[in-house]
Amino acid sequence: MSVVFILIVASLIVAVGFLIAFIWSVKSGQYEDDYTPSVRMLFDEENKQNQHKTNK
Amino acid sequence: MISEKKIEAQLLCYHCGDEVINKTIKHDEKHFCCEGCKMVYEIINQNNLCNYYDLEKNPGISQKHKVREGKFAFLDDKSIQKSLIHFTQGNQSHVQFYLPQMHCSSCIWILEHLNKLQPGIIKSQVDFLKKEILVVFEHDHTGLRKIAETLTSIGYEPHINLSHDNSKKISKYDKSRIFKIGISGFAFGNIMMMSFPEYFSLGTFEEEGMREFLGYFNLILALPVFFYSASEFFISAWKGFKQKIVNIDAPIALAVLITFGRSFYEVVSGTGAGYFDSMTGIVFFMLIGRYFQSKTYDTLSFERDYTSYFPIGVTVLNENGGETQIPVSKLKTGQRIKIHSHEIIPADSILFLGKANIDYSFVTGESLPVEKNIGEIIYAGGKQIGGAIELEVVKEVSQSYLTKLWNNDVFKENQEEKKESFIHSVSRYFTVALFSVAAAAVVYWSVYDSSKVWNALTAVLIVACPCALLLSATFTNGSLIRLLGKLNLYVKNANVIERISEADTIVFDKTGTITRQQEAQIIYNGPDLTETEQQLVRSLANQSNHPLSKSIVSFLPFSKTLSVKNFMEEKGKGVSGIINGVEIKLGSAGFMNIGKSIHSDDGSNVYVMIDGEINGCFVIKNVYREGLIGVANSLKQNYKLAIISGDNDNERTKLEGVFGKETYMLFNQKPEDKLEFIKSLQQQGHKTIMIGDGLNDAGALKQSDVGIAITDNINNFSPACDAILSGEKFRWLNGLINYCKKEKQIIYCSFIISILYNIIGLFFAVQGTLEPVIAAILMPASSISIVLFTTGMSSFYYMKLKSKMNGNKNSIEQY
Asked: In Å, how far is B123's CA from the nearest CA of chain A?
């Protein structure tokens, strides 16, 4: 067994991690509205806390 | 800040930015254009939400048109509530409203702070592009009606209609496609990477067991692609197969199946590395192409019927005089209903009480409101303008004059399935050619070296799958749809582009399509008419059905119509009569015997003569869309044109001047007549584009090969159609149609490219020497070059058209 096998498995684990992150991001609706959040993040500090609540 | 404002020549409303005329409407040293705007400001100010005004300047919505109190009373009805609330859990409910007024970041800010304005609202979230707001609220503490009224109180009146509730399902489907793309892309990339040792060492491995390990590794990665991502190709191919049709997905399904089968065999038997990289790549690129092609516009709907135009609830009067709100669908004949100003009449009914002034422009194409007397029938779809009226329903909603149109068979069949794209027939030839090559290879090798038969056959089918062909179609269509959208022609799907390019006949609706929806622009030249004079002129004009007379009637303030003696109308010239002993004449310069008209030429001049003296002249500006003459002239050369209108034929001569005598014109057409007219054209073998705007065109739009709805505001209602064109781009109709014609040209060119790649691949395949590395290079290379070519070509033509539009802007103004 060479270290190459371990590296291949490790690289796959990393890749699967990204795949899961992608699926999660689609499921949580991040691609449904790609404009409003860009405006929302520019609102003032006090409102940002509000926004946190509403995003959940 | 305030002193700065005073320096400005124009004082603008702090709320909506309109000019302030009445300077007494003030609050906190801020000026407002109307009481409505001031009230909204006070509400916002009381709740410490003035940040609204800091984010954008004058962000509000003008409040000059007040919304009637109790308008949302229908939201108290339980069954209406049920259809609107799409999620309830515990004491929380979710509701979505469509707010077309939303236009800036201030809007987002205030709408997401609704919980400060009304207790009971837990949170509100805006989707700006869809112009929707999701409100989560505690239904014990607040209700739909209250939320709608709160939104209205700050200027965002929600648009609620019957078809509101079925918008949810589509996004679910989209998600699964994104998952499929993600998984196939993931597998494609990883398998490619794991195949590098195979590519570079070309079969010799230093490491013991490495080859087997990587083979199984790739096999495992390919499994989800084969079973999940590619499933839609298999399902669709199987469905076609059951109906004995080889559809467009069949060759892809076959190619994926064979590639997977052979690769599986190679890995398990240890004879090779397989072509998993090519297989996952095919699926990945095909899915991206499909996604790209089917990407539609969030805010537009192409499937609207009368239900999205009609109100959801209506006020019903009980026998004891009380009012209740019921859903329109439950309306029964014989019920008494109350319609307020600017509300739509939901069912055919008889006027019972009140003064009806019905605007039918959207429904029948008649351009001016019609006055109705008690006892007269009023058809559904008209909009009451003026005071409230009471009506008795004589027909149920679905059986009304207008809505009956939707019972026609056209609305039941699906046009998309009827017509096959030319790509299908091309791909059929391709498939036949491919099988001949495969068969030839099989015959050749079975004679010379029978061990290579299996090898050559599968290799041919792997390398020559018609994916490149289909890719060129999907990517060309995808980028054309996107670019046409930038030019404000929004097409429903790719099929529409092809059908536009094949049409030979164009049928126009008149009102709202080649004329503007807004009423004619009128100026009065001459000394101001006194109130009595206005009444005299209005009374005389009211006797005539001529569109100019009608325009003058609607221009002058309302007054009682006086009786006219000796009324005379000379067709096309003018009217005269005696009212209260005063002789009045209205008409052209010729009619007045004053020789040449002295006023502007870009409209119609109507002179006013009172007691033998010329008082002044109404100038009624042309209401045709800008550039109509240019459109008519350029289209006339290549197309058969026709005009079909629900209006009367008063404008026939004028239209003939624009369109020429050979244009076929039909007037006084009912919605069904329009549909039948299109049908008869199609029976003569014409491919027809119908261009219309209103509900009365809905049948014709549906029946025609391509129905284009024209609208001056994309977010407004437009009837079911295949494409939506923004009114300002109407003058470029010819250019846009020509752009659609480029679709085939681009697809054929990219076919040639893909065939070149196929020849290279086949060269190796028929010899039985297709190395995975060659397949792995050819497949992405052909796909990527086709993607680049198709998007590049469509952008090139787009730039050409765009520069023409910009360059000709000034010269077109002459029309």
From this structure: 6
Contacts of residue B559, defined as CB under 8 A and 6 or more positions apart, other chains included, come to: B531, B534, B535, B538, B539
What is the architecture, at CATH level 2, of domain B71-167? 2-Layer Sandwich (3.30)
Among B55, B109, B171, the residue with its CB nearest the CB of A32 is B171
Q: How does residue B231 score in pLDDT terms, banded at 50, 70 and 90?
A: very high
By the CB < 8 Å criterion, does A52 face chain B?
Answer: no
Q: In what order do the strands lie in the sheet with B85-89?
A: B85-89, B92-98, B132-138, B121-127
E strands, B14-91, are 26-27, 30-31, 85-89
Q: B407, B398 in Cβ contact below 8 A?
A: yes
Q: What is the pLDDT of residue B792?
A: 92
**Best to test chain A binding among B56, B116, B178 (most A CBs inside 10 Å):** B178
SS3 B249: coil
Does residue B211 sit at the A interface (CB-CB below 8 Å)? no
Interface ipTM: 0.80
Distance from CA of A1 to the nearest CA of B (A): 9
The answer to whether residue B167 scores a pLDDT higher than 60 is: no
- The alpha carbon of residue B198 is apart from the nearest alpha carbon of chain A, in Å, by 15
Average of pLDDT values for B304-325?
77
Q: Position of tokens 């067709």?
A: B571
Tokens 């029978």 locate to B450
Chain B contact for A10 (CB, 8 A cutoff): no
Q: How far is CA B93 from CA B96, B122, B163, in A?
A: 10, 10, 20
User: For chain A, how many structural domains are there in total?
Assistant: 1
Q: Which domain holds residue A42?
A: 3-55
DSSP string, B148-187: HHHHHHTT-PPB--GGGGG-SHHHHHHHHHHHHHHHHHHH
Placement of tokens 């008419």 in the chain: B529
Fold of B488-516+626-742: Rossmann fold (3.40.50)
pLDDT at B85: 81
Kindly determine whether residue B127 and residue A2, on different chains, have CB atoms separated by under 8 Å. no
| CATH number assigned to the domain with residue range B522-621, chosen from the 4 options 3.40.1110.10, 3.30.70.1110, 3.90.1150.10, 3.30.300.20 | 3.40.1110.10
- Considering only CA atoms, give the Rg of chain B: 33
Contact of B108 with chain A, judged by CB distance below 8 Å, is answered with yes
For residue A52, the surrounding DSSP H or E stretch is helix A45-55
Say yes or no: domain B309-406 is CATH 3.90.1150.10. no
Q: What are phi and psi of B645, to 5 degrees?
A: -135, 150
Among B112, B182, B207, whose Cβ lies nearest the Cβ of A4?
B207
